[in-house]
Structure formats: structure tokens, C-alpha cells
Design goal:
The protein is of the alpha/beta class. It is about 35% helix and about 25% strand. The protein is built from 14 helices and 19 strands.
């Protein structure tokens, strides 16, 4: 039996792709290794969205090349977004790589791995629309939470983004297929279901001619075992009244919404080809908070987009301080070949991007500290994740925290819990982005 290792980088959507490949390998009697020592092949499932992601991917490939030279790894297979964008460069610049395959080849991963192990050098780039959107998964998340990928690709054509050229246009997964997959995840132990896509709120438009996310949420809420449903990647122009009504009405749907806004200056928003201006965004946020007063809003912003002068940056900073987001991340604009923004004038230097990013995150820390201070004395339902024997404390997440991207709550208790248990915790303190509490269950 051949032993296979997997490195999956980048976003949760890529992680689901990796889980489907792992399931196919497992079904074809490959042994899935939890380390790289002695593997017959390692698959590097890459991200290629921004320069930092590219560097991480290349570093991982080079690390595997070193292990191959040492005899620890026999074969290297590269797939994912970086492979889709830079096929020939990977082969040319890293000759230790044995196969470079596009995302459309993921469904044939078992055959490809077998051929590579038997000595073939493979370069395979079918249409990106061949990427499987359905199929069994070998979960890499803890059993009590998992992602539900409801679509792939994107049709928004933001000027800075290469996703449409990598992944193709937006493609929804059929409604009934998603419900069946969610039921299977619940049967496997999933309690928190996290809906993901490049544009989650656009779900259904391509298949059914209308936005069907509210209907999907209603159907998912009927599944026994699912207790929390969380939404990521919700574009503001598709936050409909129907969606907000559904979120407010359904107790399983968390009052947490991730809005990738990217900027708040009207000139920059237009240059980005984003739908809606700053006033539209303000109105959307007001509607969210009116429908769900306890709503937690997370967003991301791009700093240093071409043409972002001091005035445009100040407009963004003032907007952030005005809105007081619960969760916020920012990253420096990264020019991507083949995008409209790559050719734009008035590119911003890295030092300015770094300075502006530090200002934004400094302001956000003050906002978070004030919000966390106001939570002291409040009681929250917490999903237990880890135990720290050194401090004799547990940590977990409230509805306000998505895994891997948000904070946590650390709490003490005289009871014993397992990962995946729910417990009521009273907030008694805070530590920057994290809360401190005590068990009152």
C-alpha cells in the first residue's frame, strides 16, 4: 500500500478540495500519512491569491524538494491555485516536482498519484470547471465542526482579483446535494456547520435564477445534530431583507456575518469595481444591526490599492472608527499579473502600505478592547475546543468567533469537558482579542 502525505494551504475552500482528494485516495486504498517521513508521494495543495500565499506555497514545495533529496519523500505533486496559475514556472524552476496538475484534475488524483509513483512525469491542466464540487470528504477539521462549500468560482470581476481566471465563473452546488452533504456531516458528528464560497450570498443565482441562501439556511436548520450555522464571505450587495429575516428567525443560524468590504472610499471602491458605495455599505450594516442587535460583523480591507492617497486612506480609517467592526483584518494590496489593477498607475510603495496597515490595526485593537470590556459580566454559550493542563483551563469559541480567524474565550471550571461540548461561560476579563471567563453550567 502506498503512503501519501498532504499539505493544504490557503483558504477553507481549498481545504475542502483537499478533503475530497484525500477521500478519493483513501477509497483507492492509499494510506494517508500524518507526517512526511517515508511517504511515497506528497501532494501540495497550493494557494496563489496574493504574494504572501505564493511565497508560502513555494516555501512548502521547496521544503518537500529538500526532503526528496534526503530520501524522506519520493515524489512531489503540486495542485491548487498556484499550480493553476503558474504551471510551467513550477516545473521549470523546481525540477524536483514530479507532477503539476490543475484543479480540474483533482477528481483523478488517485490515478495521477499512482502514475507518478510508477515513474511518470505529469503535467495535466483540464478546464477549471472540471473541479469536483461534490463527493465524499476525509475531514481535516475536528469532528464537531466542518465547512460546507456551497459554490466555487466567482463572477464579480473585482479589478485586483485573479480568482475568476483561476477558478472560473461562480458555480453553485445543487440545493438537494448540499442538504444531503450536511446531513452526512451531522451524522459524522458535526455540530457547527460553516458555509463557504467565494461569494456565499450569491448562492443559487446561476442554477435557479434567484438567490437561495435563505432557503438553504431553512433546510439546514431542520437537520438534527447541527446546532450552529455560520456564514462566511457574504458580499454586502446581496444581503437581502429575506436573508436577514431568516438569520434573525432561525435560532441555529449564528448572528455572525463576514462581509469582505475591501475599502470604504468611493473612489477606491469604484477603481476596485466593487458594487455599491460607502453609503450603501453603511445602510447594509445598519440593516444588519437593526435585524440582529447582537450581530457580530467581521470584515477585511485592502490597504494601499493603486490611487489610495492620504485622503482616501483617511476616509477608510474614519469609516472603520465610525462603524466599529467587531472583527477586522487588513492586508496590503498585492499586484497580481493578469488583473486590471496590475496595470494601474499610482501604485503604492510597501513602506506606506505597512504604515497604513499598522494604523488600521492599532485603531481596531482599541475598538475590540472597548467592546470586550463591555462583555464583562455577560454569559455566552461556548463550544469547547482545547484543554491546557499547565493552566488547568479550557478554551473555546462563542458565536462571535469563527475558527482559525477570530479569538477565543479561556475559562476555568471544576468539571471535565470534551472537545465539542457546549458550556455556559460568564466573562470575567479579557486579554486583547481574547476573553477570560468561568464556567457557570
Amino acid at each position: 500500500m502506498y503512503k501519501i502525505g498532504m499539505i493544504s494551504l490557503g483558504c477553507p475552500k481549498n481545504q475542502v478540495d483537499a478533503e475530497r482528494m484525500l477521500a478519493l485516495l483513501d477509497k483507492n486504498e492509499f494510506e494517508i500519512a500524518d507526517c512526511y517521513e517515508g511517504v511515497d508521494a506528497v501532494i501540495v495543495n497550493t494557494c496563489g491569491f496574493i504574494d504572501d500565499a505564493k511565497r508560502e506555497a513555494i516555501e512548502n514545495i521547496l521544503d518537500m524538494a529538500q526532503l526528496k533529496e534526503e530520501g524522506t519523500v519520493k515524489k512531489i505533486i503540486v495542485t491548487g491555485c498556484l499550480a493553476q496559475r503558474h504551471q510551467e514556472e513550477i516545473f521549470t524552476e523546481i525540477p524536483e516536482v514530479d507532477a503539476v496538475i490543475g484543479i480540474g484534475s483533482n477528481g483523478n488524483i488517485a490515478d495521477i498519484v499512482k502514475k507518478v509513483i510508477e515513474g511518470e512525469k505529469i503535467y495535466d491542466m483540464p478546464a477549471n470547471t472540471e473541479l469536483p464540487l461534490v463527493g465524499e470528504r476525509l475531514l481535516t477539521t475536528p469532528e464537531y465542526w466542518s465547512y460546507l462549500k456551497i459554490a466555487d468560482g466567482c463572477s464579480n470581476r473585482c479589478t485586483y482579483c485573479a480568482i475568476p481566471s483561476i477558478r472560473g465563473d461562480f458555480r453553485s452546488v445543487e440545493f438537494e446535494t448540499l442538504v444531503d452533504e450536511a446531513k452526512a456531516l451531522a451524522d459524522a458528528g458535526t455540530k457547527e456547520l460553516i458555509l463557504i464560497a467565494q461569494d456565499t450570498t450569491n448562492y443559487g443565482m446561476d442554477l435557479y435564477g434567484k438567490l437561495r441562501l435563505p432557503e438553504l439556511l431553512d433546510a439546514l436548520c431542520e437537520i438534527d445534530g447541527i446546532e450552529w450555522i455560520r456564514l462566511l464571505y457574504c458580499y454586502p450587495d446581496k444581503i437581502t431583507d429575506e436573508l436577514l429575516e431568516t438569520m434573525a428567525r432561525q435560532p441555529k443560524v449564528l448572528h455572525y456575518i463576514d462581509l469582505p468590504l475591501q475599502h470604504a472610499d468611493d473612489k477606491i471602491l469604484k477603481a476596485m469595481n466593487r458594487k455599491g458605495d460607502s453609503e450603501y455599505i453603511r445602510n447594509t450594516i445598519s440593516r444588519i444591526r437593526e435585524a440582529m442587535p447582537d450581530a457580530v460583523i467581521r470584515t477585511t480591507f485592502i490597504i494601499g490599492f493603486p490611487g489610495e492617497g492620504e485622503e482616501e486612506f483617511e476616509n477608510l480609517a474614519e469609516f472603520i472608527n465610525e462603524i466599529e467592526f467587531d472583527r477586522l483584518g487588513c492586508f496590503s494590496y498585492s499586484p497580481q499579473e493578469g488583473t486590471t489593477a496590475y496595470e494601474m498607475e499610482d501604485q503604492i510603495d510597501d513602506e506606506t502600505k505597512l504604515r497604513r496597515g499598522e494604523i488600521i490595526m492599532g485603531d481596531q485593537l482599541e475598538i475590540v478592547n472597548l467592546k470586550n470590556h463591555e462583555k464583562i459580566g455577560s454569559i455566552y454559550k461556548v463550544l469547547v475546543e482545547d484543554y491546557d493542563g499547565y493552566s488547568d483551563s479550557y478554551s473555546g469559541r462563542t458565536y462571535m468567533d469563527a475558527p482559525d480567524i477570530d479569538g477565543k474565550i479561556v475559562f476555568t471550571t471544576e468539571k471535565e469537558y470534551n472537545s465539542g461540548d457546549f458550556v455556559d461561560v460568564e466573562v470575567i476579563g479579557m486579554n486583547e482579542y481574547d476573553l477570560i471567563g468561568k464556567d457557570i453550567s
